[in-house]
Amino acid sequence: MEKRESGNRESFYPKIIAFCCYYCAYSAADLAGSLRLQYPPTVRMIEQPCSGKVDIRLLLQAFEDGADGVYVAGCMEGDCHFLKGNIRAKKRVNAAKIILDKVGVGGERLEMFNLSGSMGPRFAEIANEMTERILRLGPNPLNTARAERTTKGEEGDPK
Amino acid sequence: MAEEKSKLQSLFEQGEFAVTCEIGPPKNAQGDGIRKHTEHLKPFVDAVNLTDNQTAIVRLSSIGAGVHVLAAGGEPIIQMTTRDRNRIALQSDLLGAYSLGVRNVLCLSGDHQTFGNHQGAKNVYDLDSIQLIQTVKDMREAKVFQSGEVIKQGEPRFFIGAVANPFADPFEFRVLRLEKKIRAGAQFIQTQCIFDMERFEAFMDLARKRGLHQQAYIMAGVMPIKSAKVAKYMQKNVSGMLVPDGIVERMSKAVDQPAEGVKLCIEQIKHLRTIPGVRGVHIMAVAWEEIVPEIVKGAGLLPRP
Amino acid sequence: MIVAEAKPLEEILESLQGMSKVLVVGCGGCVSVCLAGGEKETGILASTLRMKRELMGDSLETVEETLTRQCDPEYVQQLAKKLEGIDCILSLACGVGVQFLAEQFPQTWVVPALNTMFAGATMEHGLWEERCGLCGECVLARTGGVCPVIRCAKSLLNGPCGGSQNGKCEVKPNECAWQLIYNRVSELGRLELLLDVAGAKDWSKSRDGGPRKMVREDVKIDG
Fold first, then answer.
1. Are C165 and B177 inside 8 Å of each other by CB?
2. β-strand C61-67 against C109-112: which pairing, if any?
3. Average pLDDT over residues B214-241
């Protein structure tokens, strides 16, 4: 896939942020790496001590900053190292999805996944799944709007 | 007219077993239906309750309906809830009703407005039912308005009624609440419709222990059930009403359900007359006023004095 | 605390029509505790508004600030230096804070982001319930600590109406306040309190008398 600034639908290169918890998701990612499993470089991982550390503000900020897709990866329910962090994360992800729908960015671009540290293949699978989804959905509407404004010669990022 | 005493009160004082029933005023501005009902019911009942926007549904006012009953030669009991009017309007309406010949008032809190057809209305509840009873009594005995100001002459002298619900909770408190109402000035009581006879008997037992049956005239409420469907509906949907499964079953098994409902009601009345302290019966034939004569006849309550 | 909840986004957008730069102000008091208008909620709302307006083709610039409280002049005055170029203030405080900001900054338009609901308490994390009717003449000493003015749907003062069944109010799914009062008062052996007839309430001490004041002359600084 050619690297281009996301904004142009034909040569769309999704930027996906994955908030991964240290105990499970990040371990799974490590494992995927050791197993040389392929997953797209569209996914940029941000390590968190627990998926419960994500705040709705953080999720919204990712989209406002131009991410095309975001997912939160945490431990399997019942196995969270901090007991209920992944449950809180799930609720926040759901609340943020509603806001994203209301705003017009689209709640489908955000997702919550659960996996254990030994599930290297699942990690790769999730990365592929989200990439496919975002390719289907197209660029973040904010990026499209900003690109249009730039080509029209208006001022850039209004923030 | 202004000096005439309540006929209902006179009957109680003479030791009669009183019979009353209910008319629900129409959802329009026509009084002739009320007059017709009164004509039909006159020979069979001693007085007629006029409900006050029952279930918070807008209907012709109870006072207006009461005046129609008077015009047709009947004896009205106007119901007055505290849901829609503040103390100023309540007292004003009492003065007006008395001046038009009404002599009996039944004081109650009234169903919450969320049950009715104007759910966004502001509710008033400036007074509760007990405070209203007290107000009506003070107007008559102390000859003062609720504010304490003296009513110089022509004070309203109502025969005051209240309701009791032996089937609501907390059960133990129901008798104490009845006592409070009597202490505040209630002279006659009408109970919620009785289907759970055992519970009513327990209630009357407690009431007698406190001497309440000698301080007020307690009337037992009954309702003829038209169908098993109605029985089931009341069992499930009406707060404060207890309908035992046995009754629902009996209605379901009946071939002619309305006739069974009448039979059951007559049985209940006959039994209620044997309970010490019960001084009358209040027949609530909701949307079935025409059946009242048959019930009164069947229960052996004719002729009326 | 005063409990409020977020207004629908559409309503807030409508009140911000035509504005380009908005000061979004949260409150560290009650609305932080009931998770409606604190620093977090302010951040979320500001981000939401920015994204929505950008996609509407009508970008909105926001300045975010959360005050300790919006009902004391000392804290509110801190906003004075942030008003440069502001078209309006969007306040996430309760109705008191919104009005207070409007009073303190008469030249600036102020709109609310929340619907203020009631005076209540945290029952569990995420659930707040109404407890106080703000009637101005507390009767809790006679009812074992359960307020009949606000927890009874009819504000009855002499016991339950005929609609109370199994501890439930006839207005579902509310609890019957008088059942609660009865339980508590009888458990603590004070049932005689409920036998006295409580007279008519003086509602003029409540909202019905008009907006109220509370004064403590002994602490006033000037005069």
1. no
2. unpaired
3. 91
